Amino acid sequence: MRYTIKSRLLAGTTLIAAGFLSNAVVAQEVTIAFPADELGATSYNPVTSNNLNSAASLIYDRLIEQDADQSYHPHLATSWEESTDGMSWTFHLKDGVTFHDGSPFNAQSVADWIPDFADTENAYLVAAVASVEVIDNLTVKFVMSRPEPSLLYNLASTFMGVPGAAAFDSMGDDFGVSGAVGTGPFKLDSFAIGLETVLVRNDDYAWASDLSENQGRAHIGKITFREVPDQSTAFLELKTGGIDLLLGVPTPFLEILKAESNVAVIQMPGTGINYMPINVTSAPFDNIKVREATGLAINQEAIVASIYNGVGAPAHNFLISSLPEADVDPALNVSFDLDRAKMLLDEAGWMMGDGAVRSKDGVPLSVKLFTQNGEEFTSLTQVVQAQLADVGMEAVITVFDSSTIRDEYKNNRHQLAVRGYDWNNSDILDWFFSGKRLGYPNVSMWEDAEGQRLNDVAMEDSTNSDERIANFKAYHEYVLSQHLFVPIYQPTKNIAYNSDRLSVPDPVRGTRFRSQTVLDMAVVE
Amino acid sequence: MLIPVSISISVVIFLIVQLLPGDPIDNLIRVGSSTEDRKTLVLKYGLDQPLAVQYFRWIGAIFQGDFGEAIVLRRPVADLIAQNLPYSLRLGGAAFAFSSIAGITLGTISATTRSAIVENIMRGFILLGSTVPGFWLALLMILFFAVQLQWFPVSGAKGWSSLVLPVLTIGFGGVALVARVTRVALLDVRREDFVTLLHAKGLPSRTILFRHLMPHAMLPVVTILALRIGWILGGAVTVEFVFGRPGLGSLLIRAIGQRDYPLVQGCLLMLALAVMLGTLIGDVTQAAMDPRIRETKK
After folding, report:
1. Are residues B115 and B230 in the same domain?
2. B 144-203 residues with CB below 8 A of A?
3. Nearest by CB to B154, which of A48, A240, A408?
4. How far off is chain B from A12, nearest CA to CA, in Å?
5. CA-CA 20 to 30 A from A438: which of A59, A509, B50, B61?
């Protein structure tokens, strides 16, 4: 008897001590700065919003997660099957998942959520889903109106984080602004548009994806996401401890950051490329030989080494190298070849005279080279200009802001342009080369019957992901054979953090910095 | 007078924004949406209509108190402005108070002290204050006070300590201007006959300064300060950006970059109103201070 009381007292003390310990953990607070392209979100409503930031991925969980190698991993859906004709998908859902408001996550939650997309700008994500059938409490079936090989990709997008249906309906336009309900590892505490978002830990969380080491609740108790528009200010905040982690650090800043003793840098494989579209309707680029020569004149390896200090990778075709469609016939990849570039220009009739610039019938080979403002593009454009000069092409640089330059494209006033995109799906080829979008996004102004046919096949006739890969690869190869652009660089996504305060898993899993990484992050004491 | 000015301002604001190359829809659509989606959006926001129609629709809605909805940011413009205005007012108000108090004090010191050294330091300060650009000064302030000395936070809008550096940055130019005007005005008034008379009567020079010189000298200072009300709100644009503060300026910069027409128009209209209100307040204060102006207005 005596013994039991003693052990009970002991157990009680342990519990109290544990309580103190967990209090200490609750006090763990971290401040994160959004990357520049995520600033200005006005809502955390994943269904209706057109701009969601990294914090949204912590409030909502997705059915499926995508890793950096573009493979798909189960999350709220534990497994899935696609019918052979691609006309239906069945998802098996994780048991025991609850929303922040306490309501359970089940098949009905998915069935209630998908129809909410109708008539929003995000409707295209589920446009191919005709109806959602509840098979049993944890099984749901998507009946398709056409095969959609991108369905898994779409489901892994932040815009397809699952909101709590009850709160979504009752809060209306305020959902995602004054409050938000998801199943994610963090709850929305407060949101001041343009200033900061405060998230607090969801203590019930026990359904992390296999991309995280930590399968329980997060180590960090409270996260403040801040909007700091000026990059220099953000860097100084990191240096002085006002910010613990900086997302989206521009590559030119890396050297300065690495020199700081308390700052650690993680480079994630990027999800886009920087490239130079060529306007095929504008002489001399209406001649395919001149276009090919332009591509051969660009030395991607030298650019990576000189401007980016070896960070990131050269790009030799239009897609990031982790996509299977990027694995094209090596002969079609665009690589530096100065002699062949000069030979092709000679063949096209642009001859080297006494000066440094080639000419044809007395007209010098002088072209317009556009780019948009920002350190990232302007220094790259200057190197491109120097490399073009080596083959006798004079490029005159004009710098525009990002809205004005689109207007120039649409009015067909451009010849060459240095720009970038950020998208880890091969349907980016359709976006930039479809004849339906001449000017912008089809900056190359390319309209071609065979190209459109291959585009239609890839976009509409693929019934499963293998077919889709083959079709997009064929389209990609045809686009490459026409020399419509010059691939230059695959940037990395850079994260910098205060290593005295924080531990961050390296490498970061997933295509972007999201909940799987935040779950594993911890404050160093 | 205010009504025709307001109408012409609204036309100018509308045209400036609409005639910029580029359009908001490109900042809205994402990879994967179709050309039809684009057309739907253009129709939804009435961007296919002639400019005159768009103008009258906009101004008509404003008369009913409706500033419209931001195209890219997706929130009612009035809400966005209401959320950001308090930050701007706090910053602007503090900067205004700082530049008036510090400016008048420095101007008075420089006008009354006869030391050549003080004179030269003041001149140098005034010259610097009127020429150094705000965004550069902001970075210097951060480097010195926030990074080296760590007295104040680098950026943000939490608490009063984060207000100090932006206020100093914006107020600096104002201090110099106000100091210069105060100095010149005081020196002018001192040459008046009645001042000589006051001295002859044997009044202490302190009483002469505060009771008799100041009320005269303050007239041009008030005019300058009134004009600065609008200037401070508008001039805060780059400073807000550097210090990562929300506010009308940050909102305007983002809206212009994305060509968010209704939002740019709303913000510019607010700034224009602030300038007009400032002028009005200046006129009223001047009339209250100077019986001569009251007389002529009657």
Report:
1. yes
2. 146-147, 150, 153-157
3. A240
4. 41
5. B50
Instruction: Give yes or no for a contact between A118 and A125, defined as CB atoms under 8 angstroms apart.
Output: no
* B23 and B89 within one domain: no
Q: Which residues contact A15 (CB under 8 A, 6 or more apart)?
A: none
Amino acid type, B280: L
Distance between CA atoms of residues A150 and A524, nearest Å: 40
CATH of the domain at B248: 1.10.3720.10
Contact residues, B window 116-145, toward A, CB-based 8 Å cutoff: 139, 142-143
- CA distances from residue B79 to A85, A120, B248 in whole angstroms, order as listed: 49, 22, 12
Tell whether A43 is within 8 A of chain B (Cβ).
yes
Task: Report the alpha-carbon distance of residue A304 to residue A310 in Å, rounded.
Answer: 5
- B44 and B146 in a common domain: no
B41 & B180 share domain: no
Q: Residue B69 domain-assigned? A: no
How many domains in chain B? 2
Distance, CA of B243 to CA of B170 (rounded, Å):
12
Same domain, B180 and B107: yes
Residue B76 lies in a domain: no
B 68-127 residues with CB < 8 A to A: 70, 72-75, 80, 83-84
**Same-domain check for residues B192 and B109:** yes
Q: Are strands A485-490 and A222-226 parallel, antiparallel or unpaired?
A: unpaired
Query: Which SS3 state, helix, strand or coil, does residue A282 take?
Result: coil
On whether residue B71 sits in a domain, the answer given is no
CA separation for the pair B241, A98 (Å, rounded): 40
Domain that holds residue B148: 84-297
CA distance B286 to B292: 10
Contact A382, A397 (CB under 8 A): yes
H runs (alpha helix) in A434-514 = 449-460, 465-481
Q: A–B: how many Cβ contacts below 8 A?
A: 122
Joined tokens for residue A47? 């269904």
ipTM: 0.77
The answer to whether residues B171 and B229 belong to one domain is yes
Structure tokens at A437: 């979008």
Q: Of chain A residues 56-115, which have a CB less than 8 A from chain B?
A: none
B34 close to A (CB below 8 A): yes
State residue A27 phi and psi, 5-degree precision: -70, -5
Q: Which residues have C-beta within 8 Å of that of residue A278, sequence separation ≥ 6?
A: A285, A291, A294, A415, A416, A444, A483, A484, A485, A486
- Shared domain for B246 and B288, answered yes or no, is yes
How far, in Å, CA of A313 to CA of A308, rounded? 9
What does each of the 525 residues of chain A score in pLDDT, given as a tens digit? 444 454 454 444 444 444 444 444 445 899 999 998 888 888 999 998 888 899 999 999 999 999 988 899 999 999 999 988 889 999 999 999 999 999 999 999 999 999 999 888 888 889 899 999 999 999 999 999 988 888 999 999 999 999 999 999 999 888 998 899 999 999 999 998 888 899 999 999 999 999 999 999 999 999 999 988 888 888 888 988 889 999 988 887 888 888 888 899 998 888 899 999 999 999 899 999 999 999 999 999 999 998 888 888 999 999 999 899 999 999 999 999 999 999 999 999 999 988 889 999 989 999 999 999 877 788 899 999 999 999 999 999 999 988 889 889 989 999 999 999 988 889 899 999 998 888 888 999 999 999 999 999 998 888 888 889 999 999 999 999 999 999 999 998 899 999 999 999 988 888 889 999 999 999 987
Within a domain: B78: no
Rounded CA gap, A246 and A435, in Å?
39
Q: Which chain A residues touch B29 with a CB distance below 8 Å? A: 121
How many angstroms separate the CA atoms of A328 and A310, rounded? 24
